[in-house]
Request: fold
Amino acid sequence: MNDTDYQTLLEQAMEAARRAPERGRAADYIPALAQANPTAFGMAIATVDGAVFGAGDWEHPFSIQSVSKLFTLALALADGGDELWRGVGREPSGNPFNSLVQLETENGIPRNPFINAGALVVTDRLLKLTGDAVGAVREFLRAESGNPAVAVDDSVASSEARHGHRNAAMAHFMASYGNLRNPVDSVLAHYYAHCAIEASCRDLALAGLFLARHGTRADGSRLLSRSEAKRINAVLLTCGTYDAAGEFAYRVGLPGKSGVGGGVLAVLPGRGTVCVWSPGLDAAGNSVLGVAALDALTTATGWSVF
Ligand code: DON
Reply:
C-alpha cells in the first residue's frame, strides 16, 4: 500500500465515524479532562517499519489516561517477568474500570491489569523494579515515538489526585491484603502521573509498535519475547476496553486499549498500529467516535486478528 492509500483510508474511516448518531461526553470525574475540546478528532497509522500516517488532529497531544496501562504492563513484565501474575489476574472483569466489587471476594487480587485496581498493582511493581514508574513510561514513550516533548501534565495528575477517592480506596484495600510493595501514596502518585502523560495519536501509534513487532523496539532491541508480546495482545483483546471488550472485538477485531482522555490504541500484529482520539466517551469510558472510526477502518480493510 502506498502513502496516499493509508491517508485516504484514515480520512474515509473518520468521515464514516462522523455519521454516528451519538458523540458521547468527555470525562468529567477528573475535572481537568472536562475541558477537552469536544470536536477534536484525529487518527494515525504506524507500520512495523516505523512509517506513520495521520489525519485530523493526529499530532495534537491529549491525556493518554488508561492507554498508559499498556506500557506499564509491558515494562513491568519486561523487568520483572511472570512474578507479576501472582498479584493480578488476566480474566475479563465484566465490570466498569473503576469497580471495587470483585476485590473483596477475590482477596485483593484484581481481575486484570487494565481495570484500575489491576493497573495500580502493575504501577506498584514497576515502581519497585525501577524506582520511578512514571519516568520509565515517559522515557519509553519518548524513545519509541522519537518525540522528546512527551511529558506529564501535572495539572491533570493533581486534578485526579484531588478527586481520586475510588482509586485511593482500592489501593488501601489491596494494601490491607499485602498486595502492594510500596506506600499507597507513592503508588497513587505514580499512577496518576503516568495516566496524565500527554501524547498524540502519532506518538502513541509509534510507541505501540513493539506489540506489532512481536516484542521488538524501534531501535531493534528486544523488550519482550514473542510469546510475552502475544500474551499482552491477548489481554488487550479480552480486557483492554473493560466490560465493552466483547463489543470492541466484535466491531473492531483487534487488541486495543482505551483511555478516558478519548484515545484508543489498537494493534495489528505483524503489520502496525492504529491510534485514534476523540474525547466524547460512551458509558463504558471508551471514545465513541474512536471506536466507530476503528470499526470503519477494519471493516473497510479486513484488518483483524480473526
Ligand atoms: O484512574 C482513572 O480513573 C483514570 N486515571 C484512568 C481511567 C481510564 O482511562 C479508563 N479508560 N477508559
